[in-house]
Design goal:
The protein is built from 11 helices and 16 strands. It has 422 residues and is an alpha/beta fold. The strands form 3 sheets. The protein has a 7-stranded parallel beta sheet with strand order 5-4-3-2-1-7-6. Helix 6 packs parallel to helix 7 (192-200). The longest helix is centred in the middle third of the chain and has 18 residues, at 156-173. Bound molecules: ligand H79. The site of ligand H79 has 11 residues, from loops.
Length: 422
């Protein structure tokens, strides 16, 4: 009974913490090319592992990462504890390929977890199942595998025991973990792994890339079609098109692209983790920080349209606008980017008592009138004079407050049902 209540709270926590900072950080930040440089450049295993002797992030300060997340309206951090390369960012007792065996010598996950706890920032852990370092960790059933070296001893049973030990450490020594992000499905069914996580972190949510289905889905660099997610969802996207880890010659996404992606996912009810790769010294590159701050300024201005709001795009059934609601407020999200400065919200024929552009708080024009393009129909709510050219680099959200939004939606639902029946 108590367990159930906790699970319920955590689910709400996941639903309340909508926007997060994903952080990919490890030895790969030293070459600054891609987090999978070892595989994607066919790099010699020993050559890659030699980077361990150079890793010394003297400027790592978790409070600076949290400052950035806060400035963007983010409420959680998802941190790569171990990526495909097998390097561990915590003081694990199960391998020496870890942060505490570098010149730096400190447990970076402990530092981050302490700071998150102190500042009320949620913490989610990323853990990759492929392991290009562990001698037993070769899994021919999965992708992202580096063929074993002559001295390796591929043995998935032993490797899974290692994984179990590591996840138990992660879920024991670092306080409350909001969610657990497995990466790269192993194509091995084994519910005992998620059971370990759940026993140690009651109420945690686990994603869908592990040894069983899990609790939430994770579209990656992809915005699914549709109006609403049918299960808890956290979309993940990097600010850089090429890499998740720090990359010197990165192609950064435009703010327009990122805000369109976030708005669509969030209007469908999903969470969104936006990724940046810190440099090997522990600092977040200024160009990346600026992108996150820019997206964050937009997010802070419109977040009331996502946080605690209900996705209701299916009621309108359109492909040019997304809709959420909260009480009597209807939020109209101009996703995809608008073609013109006005929108017709047919079949609504009711005037809201307030209409504002959430991005800047200014009033927008709203009239119920007959439109030439819909001249043989009823008068409809027409929102116009939207300053679309002033907001090309961010998604426009319009807030319309009605006297009785339930009544409006109720009549639309019956209309949709009747039309569907005919
Ligand atoms: O850590 C970052 C990338 O290095 C890692 N995942 C993100 C979070 C990644 N490794 N390979 N890829 C991404 C390539 C794409 C894999 C995908 Fe899938 C195929 C994403 C969705 C389908 C495999 C299957 C991973 C998730 C499901």
């Amino acid at each position: 009974m108590e367990h159930q209540a906790q699970a319920c709270n955590a689910t709400q926590g996941f639903g309340e913490r909508r926007f997060g900072l994903f952080i990919h950080w490890g030895l790969y930040a030293i070459p600054g090319w891609h987090e999978q440089i070892q595989m994607r450049q066919g790099m010699d295993k020993r050559q890659y592992q030699a980077l361990q002797a150079q890793f010394d992030p003297q400027r790592f300060d978790p409070d600076e990462w949290i400052d950035l997340a806060e400035q963007a309206g983010m409420t959680y951090i998802c941190f790569t504890t171990k990526h495909h390369d097998g390097f561990c960012l915590w003081d694990t007792q199960y391998t020496n390929f870890k942060i505490t065996h570098t010149p730096y010598g400190r447990d970076t996950l402990a530092m981050l977890a302490d700071a998150c706890k102190r500042r009320g920032m949620g913490l989610s852990l990323y853990y990759s199942i492929p392991d290009w370092h562990h001698p037993n960790g070769y899994n021919p059933l999965s992708s992202h595998q580096v063929p074993p070296a002559p001295e390796d001893e591929p043995d998935m049973d032993r490797y899974i025991d290692f994984v179990k030990n590591q996840i138990a450490e992660l879920c024991t020594n670092y306080g409350e973990i909001m969610s657990f992000f497995w990466d790269i499905p192993p194509n091995i069914y084994d519910p005992t792994l998620n059971a370990i996580i759940r026993r140690l972190q009651p109420g945690i949510l686990i994603n869908d890339r592990g040894f069983e289905d899990g609790d939430y889905s994770t579209p990656e660099r992809h915005v699914p079609d549709g109006w609403k997610f049918d299960k808890p969802t956290e979309a993940v996207q990097s600010i850089g098109r090429q890499s998740w880890g720090y990359r010197t010659n990165e192609d950064y996404y435009s703010q327009q692209f990122l805000t369109q992606s976030i708005a669509k996912i969030m209007a469908m009810g999903g969470n969104y983790a936006l990724n940046v790769g810190p440099r090997a010294d522990g600092t977040i590159p200024e160009i990346g920080a600026n992108i996150i701050r820019g997206v964050g300024l937009w997010y802070l201005s419109v977040k009331e349209a996502y946080e605690g709001a209900e996705p209701i795009s299916e009621v309108f059934g359109r492909d040019d606008l997304m809709f959420t609601r909260k009480g009597n407020a209807l939020y109209v999200h101009l996703v995809p980017a608008p073609e013109s400065s006005g929108i017709i919200l047919n079949p609504v024929s009711v005037l809201p008592h307030s209409a504002i552009l959430l991005n800047n708080g200014a009033a927008v024009k709203a009239v119920v009138e007959k439109m030439p393009t819909l001249a043989n129909e009823k008068d409809y709510l027409h929102v116009s004079d939207i300053p679309v050219n002033e907001f090309v680099s961010q998604v426009i959200v319009i807030k319309l407050v009605f006297d009785d939004l339930d009544g409006i939606i109720g009549s639309m639902e019956s209309r949709v049902t009747i039309e569907n029946r005919v």
